[in-house]
């Protein structure tokens, strides 16, 4: 199909999807740059190789994976024109997203209690990368939560149906991307020391 074909609504919908994918591509490039810098820096003499990933980061990984599942259930419910069930699943996804962030901060506390800091005289380049990459991911999860709140609000206002799912689809795509990105990052930190 030619991208210039279709109704104005179809064209706008395609443009919104394309903008989301451009945003996701730029995020991928940003995180690829940081993880590449992490790999290059790992050859430094002061690089830590014996640190433990905080258990809170592992728990938060489970939470964000579950939240992707609840977003899928919300999307299915809304597509089946069951708005109230969709609202419940969206609300659960929101709570899980908030829990993810809180548990991430617990992970930062675990790092600090081990004597690792982001910056300062007792900081280390390895931990600075971990703090930076995890914190930037949290910022994007906050953006995902804002997007989720918009989807939740629009669902409560009955703006979605089986024929009008664009907002839900865009929100879900971004949320699933954030989920996959964190899974990649935790595996990266776990296996590449």
Strand count: 0
Strand portion: under 5%
How many H/I helical runs? 5
Q: What's the number of structural domains?
A: 1
CATH homologous superfamily caption: Cytochrome c oxidase, subunit III, four-helix bundle
> Major β-sheet, in short?
none
CATH architecture: Up-down Bundle
Using the CA coordinates, give the radius of gyration: 19 Å
Distance between the termini: 47 Å
What overall form do the CA principal axes indicate?
elongated
Order of helices and strands: HHHHH
Q: Look at the helices and sheets and give the structural class.
A: mainly alpha
Mean pLDDT over the full residue set: 93
Stretches with pLDDT under 50, minimum 5 residues: none
Please estimate the helix content.
Answer: over 70%
* CATH fold assignment: Four Helix Bundle (Hemerythrin (Met), subunit A)
**CATH first level: which class?**
Mainly Alpha
């Amino acid at each position: 199909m030619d991208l210039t074909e279709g109704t104005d609504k179809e064209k706008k919908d395609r443009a919104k999807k394309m903008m989301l994918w451009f945003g996701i591509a730029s995020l991928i490039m940003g995180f690829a740059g940081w993880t590449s810098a992490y790999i290059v820096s790992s050859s430094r003499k002061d690089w830590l190789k014996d640190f433990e990933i905080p258990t809170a980061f592992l728990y938060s990984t489970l939470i964000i994976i579950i939240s992707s599942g609840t977003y899928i259930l919300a999307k299915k419910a809304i597509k089946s024109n069951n708005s109230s069930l969709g609202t419940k699943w969206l609300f659960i996804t929101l709570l899980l997203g908030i829990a993810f962030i809180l548990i991430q901060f617990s992970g930062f506390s675990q790092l600090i209690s081990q004597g690792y800091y982001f910056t300062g005289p007792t900081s280390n380049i390895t931990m600075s990368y971990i703090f930076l990459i995890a914190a930037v991911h949290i910022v994007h999860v906050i953006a995902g939560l804002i997007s989720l709140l918009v989807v939740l609000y629009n669902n409560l206002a009955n703006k979605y149906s089986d024929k009008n799912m664009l907002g839900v689809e865009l929100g879900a795509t971004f949320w699933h991307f954030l989920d996959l990105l964190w899974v990649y990052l935790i595996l990266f930190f776990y296996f590449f020391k």
